[in-house]
Amino acid sequence: MHRYIGNTDQDRVEMLKEIGVSDIKALFSSVPDSVHLDRKLNLPVALSEMELIKNLKSLSKTNYNTDDYTCFLGAGAYDHFIPSAVGELLSRQEFYTAYTPYQPEISQGTLQVIFEYQSMICELTGMHVANASMYDGATAMTEAAIMAVESTKRKEILVAKAVNPEDRKVLNTYAKFRDIVITEVDYKNGQIDVDDLQSKLNSNVAALIVQSPNFFGIVENIEAFNDLIHNNKSLLIVSADPISLALLKSPGELGADIAVGDGQSLGNPLNYGGPYLGYLAVTEKLMRKMPGRIVGQTTDKDGNRGFVLTLQTREQHIRREKATSNICSNQALNALTATIYLTLLGKEGLNEVAEQCLQKSHYAYNELIKTGKFSEVFSAPFFKEFVLISEQPVSELNNKLLQNNVIGGYDVQKKYTELKNGYLVAVTEKRSKEEIDYLCERVVK
Amino acid sequence: MLKKQPLIFEISKEGRKAYSLPKCDVPKSVNDEIIDKKYQRETALGLPEVSELDAVRHFTQLSQRNHGVDSGFYPLGSCTMKYNPKINEIVSRFDGFTKIHPLQSEETVQGALKVLYDMDEMLSEIVGMDQFSLQPAAGAHGELTGLMIIKAYHENRGDAKRNKIVVPDSAHGTNPASAAVAGFDIVEVKSNEKGLVDLQSLKDAMSDEVAGFMLTNPNTLGLFDENILEISSIVHEAGGLMYYDGANTNAIMGITRPGDMGFDVVHVNLHKTFSTPHGGGGPGSGPVGVKKHLADFLPVPVIVKNENGYKLDNDRPLSIGKVKSFYGNFGVIVRAYTYILSMGPDGLKEVSETAVLNANYIAAKLKDVYHLPLDHSPCMHECVFSGDWQKAENGVSTLDIAKRLLDFGYHPPTIYFPLIVSEALMIEPTECESKETLDEFISVLRQIAEEAKNDPELVKTAPHTTIVSRLDEATAARKPIVKYMR
Amino acid sequence: MKLLDELKYVESHEWVKVEENKARMGISDYAQEHLGEVVFVELPEVGATVAAGDQIIVLESVKAASDVYAPVSGTVVEINEELLDNPGLINESAYDAWIAVIEMSDASEVDKLLSASDYEKVCE
Question: pTM of the entire structure?
Answer without folding.
Answer: 0.96
